[in-house]
Amino acid sequence: MIKNCSDFDSYFKELVQLCKKDGLHREQMEKLLDVLYENCDKFDLSQPEYRKMVLAYSDTHASDVAKDTLKNFQESTENISDITKLNIEQVERIILDEELDLSNLKNKVDSFHTEIFGELEKANKKIENLQQEIHSLEKEVNLDHLTKVFNRKTLIEDINHLIEVAQSKENTFSIVILDLDDFKLINDRHGHLAGDKVLIYVAKLLKAMVKTGAKVYRFGGEEFIIVMNEAFVDEAKVMAHKAVEAVGKNKLKFKSEIITITASVGVTQYREGDDYETLFARADKAMYEAKANGKNRVELR
């Protein structure tokens, strides 16, 4: 059980150590950290400082997995080497014996096979478990820690890939940029924790809306991106209007207060010759036009 710590840093470090000791999976650890995050205001710690600590834990965790992978591989290799060496020596002694006992030789060879296959099976099991852990880590690296939608790094990689496909296969895709209106006022009026709750809430709304072939990203701050593969601008426009409507009609309750949210959205479609910068500059301009034209609306470019 965690002791009562006067400062957040001690509390956080003790939680991490307990989770490692009990062998909790990363997802379980994340859930505990999320609960802890909601109580940041009880400690002298800002949300950005908290995120920095969580990211530091993530880096350490990834390093530990890599070390475990190498250690398990080395142990399996050494075990197989020892078994092989021992059995070769035993077989050589039998062969050099003047009276060759074929039955004894067969038993030794069978025993050798059993040990080798047993060790290989254990090694394969360890590798399978580590691969699952690595897959989980890779997934975490591609996600925004707060909202759990894809992050900016993944967005850039995906867009560049879609541009390559569009150039080679004459495919197309569209992007929707959604920016929450007057988000700074929400932070100023209700606090940054309320602002984070709004971001999480909107991310969940958008993820629930998108269909196969579309992905949601957090570009940064209060800005979200929806990338729709094999979609023309008219289809993306329909999605954008649905997003504006969903964000506007769903109100978030925070500490007995109702927070009203609206969004301005810009939409564009890939055009021949586009690169990442030109594509986003056009969509970004459409989004700012939506802001200038009264907010809570959609503009196309």
Task: Give an overview in words.
The chain has 9 helices and 7 strands. The protein is of the alpha+beta class and 301 residues long. It has 2 domains: 64-141; 152-300, Reverse transcriptase/Diguanylate cyclase domain (Alpha-Beta Plaits, 2-Layer Sandwich). Strands 2-3-1-6-7 form a 5-stranded mixed beta sheet, with helices on both faces. Helix 3 (47-96) runs antiparallel to helix 4, helix 6 (183-190) crosses helix 7 (192-209) and helix 7 crosses helix 8. The protein starts with 7 loop residues before the first helix and ends with a strand.
Number of domains: 2
Strand content: 5-15%
Q: Return the CATH class of the largest domain.
A: Alpha Beta
Which topology of the largest domain does CATH recognise?
A: Alpha-Beta Plaits
In whole angstroms, the N-to-C terminal distance is: 57 Å
Residue-averaged pLDDT:
77
CATH superfamily of the largest domain: Reverse transcriptase/Diguanylate cyclase domain
How many individual helices?
9
Describe the structure concisely:
The chain has about 300 residues and is of the alpha+beta class. About 65% of the residues lie in helices and about 15% in strands.
Topology of this structure?
Blueprint: H1 8-22, H2 26-37, H3 47-96, H4 102-141, H5 152-169, E1 173-180, H6 183-190, H7 192-209, E2 214-220, E3 223-229, H8 233-249, E4 252-254, E5 257-259, E6 263-269, H9 276-292, E7 298-300
Parallel strand pairs: 6-7
Antiparallel strand pairs: 1-3, 1-6, 2-3, 4-5
Helix pairs in contact: 3-4, 6-7, 7-8
